[in-house]
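Shape matters. As here.
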Amino acid sequence: MSVILVTGGSGMVGQHVAEVIAARGLAARLADVAWPAGRDRAPPGERVTFDICDPAACRAQARGVRAVVHCAAVVGPQRARVDPLATLAVNVGGTANLLEAASEAGVRLVAISTATLYGHRADLSPLPEDAPADPLTVYDGTKLMAETYCAAHRRTYGSDAASIRTGFVYGFGSQIGEYFLPRALRGEAIVEAAGCDHPCDFTYVVDLAEALVAAALAPSLPASVYNVTGGVIRTRGDLAGVVTKLVPGARITLGAGIDPARHLRGPCVIERARQDFGWTPRFTLETGIADWKRRLEESDAADGP
């Protein structure tokens, strides 16, 4: 059976990637630097523990696999700001180690990047992959560095590598960002001073996972960078409305206007992913939130009273 190595296997995206791999009849080798207690609802798969900052460990784990889906990272501007050097080591150095290992093993590396590296785009114009990058934070900068290294490695050595730009990712296991649903289900009141009109290109995590696996298994990837998002602009007010409709009694109050603390940009153009590996998002904001709610309720039921 073909095995796909998934780094960041204990995380939100890695767990959903494992689901998709299992659904395709393949095996996942889920890798992480540690396995936190309580994150064990992924489909069966071999679990391994290693540090992507260790080149020898990366080489050992990449041998014999069909592809590497690289989800491990220091994620988000806030976490990166706390320790920029660790962020550089993991997001850039770790990606370089995995790419070298994958290239040596003759397999493809598909790495998660971020649409936040497009920077602040107040005109909200659509963003194709060749739009200029303008990182605003250390996190965005490390992701652009990793992308650039992967693209240069392709040109220099003919390696098989691609970066997937995504953003505003929500769904089961979410730990970054505020997407209202878990707190609403707990009965908490949610109040934000501003942001009702803030535009977001939301990405449901299942769509992202399906894209990562599709890219890993495609016969070829002509480009080194792909946008993978919902591809449409919705507002945080839309998000609040969807959650309120699904959770009767939800208390969500958002002030008007945009949220100055959040990235502001238009929708990503996602046509390249459709053309090159046959992916389009299956979920709208409405169906994605509904699926997330189902998963949360099933998880709570499994945990018992």
